[in-house]
From TrEMBL:
The lineage of its organism: Bacteria, Bacillati, Bacillota, Bacilli, Bacillales. GO terms for cellular component: plasma membrane. Coiled coil: none annotated. Its main location: membrane. Keywords: Cell membrane, Ion transport, Membrane, Potassium, Potassium transport, Transmembrane, Transmembrane helix, Transport. PROSITE patterns: ASP_PROTEASE (PS00141). It holds the Pfam family TrkH. One of its GO terms (biological process) is proteolysis. It comes from the Bacteria. InterPro entries: Aspartic_peptidase_AS, Cat_transpt, TrkH. This is Trk family potassium uptake protein. The chain crosses the membrane at residues 16-37, 44-65, 77-101, 132-153, 194-219, 231-250, 295-328, 349-373, 410-429. It is found in: Cell membrane. One of its GO terms (molecular function) is potassium:chloride symporter activity.
Length: 448
């Protein structure tokens, strides 16, 4: 059926992905608009339903209504289903059902799957999709069981299991939706070692990408890691460490965040915010109470985001690493960017520059529009929410629930662009490989 529709519409992979995500969002919004979706039996107004469906499908986590108290069980299941589909990709699910039905995966569908997973080549793409489903099921089940056991000390067993698996799915897919109520996210567990370590592990595994996870898993047999995996792991570790240290320093004496906590509580609070800032969107300390210096660090971490082929957004860790490498190489007077004794091809550097510039342009435009639609709102709050939406992070200083209809619409489009835009841009840039049979003479301009 999918094959026939693709042939009928004559859509290339990027356009199909955009259309597919849009269709899933509209279906989700329609379901959340139903009276059965909310506890009061009224259903959400359309703009709030659309916002929530977009946030869930784009695995963002920004909310205009409290998930735990507003939605019925039906509504919460719709939200978590959208998160799961949006997190690992609807094409991965389509491939799974096709394999169950013993259907042949066509070349066109393999290309679409490659685009959906942001994979370098089409080789082994179906096998990768299988591994993604297996990894996802195992990791979410393990996380769900551990969180269920911990939550069972605070609530009835049935509720603990439901909460455990909801939060495991939400955090592995880097969505950040929670059921705790009153927009308080995971603040009740700021110093809890089990909740902190389990959720941080889920977020990191979801944020490094399925390709990296598969290589790490197979390392015991292959004894080798690709350059991509090495760069992702090194950059992720560096960003988490730097973020944790800086937040720890900036918030240490803040009476509204870390000061009342024990030393280990301060460490967990700093670590959690550093991990969740780049990808997830849940929080254990109130973001609005943090120092401006900490908020600036979080904005930078959100903009960088997760890694390629993951459930997170942002410009991606590899893009950031490539740009930093290029700056270091230039400062040392070297022509090549070297990572782990391998040279990065110039096309990747150009692509990193293009993706970053496009992301900055979009972020500037969205921030400017929000300053118009949300007059009276603090500029830092506007910049924070705009960055969170673009990077599909989901952290909020508290402005999102109070946005105007125009502001909500802007963030809906921003979240959508943040989820499908980088994939489409990267694919379009990859296609431009027309061979040139002549070159213009070199010219020089003054830089800096």
């Amino acid at each position: 059926m999918l094959r026939k529709w693709l042939a009928f519409l004559h859509l290339d992979p990027p356009k199909t992905l955009v259309l597919g995500f849009a269709l899933i969002i509209l279906i989700g919004a329609s379901l959340l608009h139903l009276p059965i979706a909310t506890n009061d039996g009224q259903g959400l107004v359309w703009i709030d339903a659309l916002f929530t469906a977009t946030s869930a499908t784009c695995v963002t986590g920004l909310v205009v209504v409290d998930t735990g108290t507003t939605f019925s069980t039906f509504g919460q299941i719709v939200v978590i289903s959208l998160i799961q589909i949006g997190g690992i990709g609807f094409m991965t699910f389509a491939t799974f059902f096709a394999l169950i039905l013993r259907k042949r995966i066509s070349l066109r569908e393999r290309l679409l799957l490659q685009e959906s997973l942001n994979h370098i080549s089409i080789e082994g793409i179906v096998r990768l999709a299988k591994m993604i489903l297996i990894f996802t099921a195992l990791i979410e089940c393990a996380g769900g069981i551990l969180l269920s056991i911990r939550f069972a000390f605070d609530m009835p067993l049935g509720k603990a299991v439901y909460y455990g698996f909801f939060h495991a799915i939400s955090n592995f897919n880097n969505a950040g939706f929670d059921l705790m109520g009153d927009f308080r996210s995971m603040t009740d567990y700021v110093a809890d070692p089990v909740v902190n370590l389990v959720i941080c592990s889920l977020i990191v595994m979801g944020g490094i990408g399925f390709i990296v996870m598969s290589e790490v898993y197979e390392y015991r047999h292959t004894k080798r890691l690709s350059l991509h995996t090495k760069v992702v792991l090194a950059t992720t570790a560096a960003l988490i460490t730097a973020g944790t240290i800086l937040i720890f320093i900036f918030e240490y004496h803040n009476p509204k965040t870390l000061q009342p906590l024990s030393f280990m509580g301060k460490v967990f609070g700093s670590l959690y915010q550093s991990v969740t800032a780049r990808t997830a969107g849940s929080n254990t300390i109130n973001i609005g109470d943090m120092q401006h210096s900490s908020l600036f660090i979080i904005i930078l971490l959100m903009f960088i985001g997760a890694s390629p082929g993951s459930t997170g957004g942002g410009i991606k860790t590899t893009t950031f690493a490539t740009l930093v490498g290029a700056v270091i190489a230039q400062a040392k007077g070297k022509e090549d960017v070297i990572f782990f004794r391998q040279r990065i091809v110039s096309q990747m550097i150009y692509k990193s520059l293009a993706v970053t510039l496009i992301a900055l342009s979009l972020l500037i435009a969205v921030t400017m529009i929000l300053t118009i639609t949300e007059q009276g709102a603090d500029f830092l709050m506007i910049l924070f929410e705009a960055t969170s939406a673009f990077a599909t992070t989901g952290l909020s200083m508290g402005l999102t629930p109070h946005l105007s209809i125009s502001g909500k619409t802007v963030l809906v489009l921003t979240m959508f662009a943040g989820r499908v835009g980088p994939l489409t841009i990267a694919y379009a840039l990859t296609l431009r490989k027309k061979k040139e049979y002549y070159r213009y003479p070199k010219g020089k301009i003054t830089i800096g």
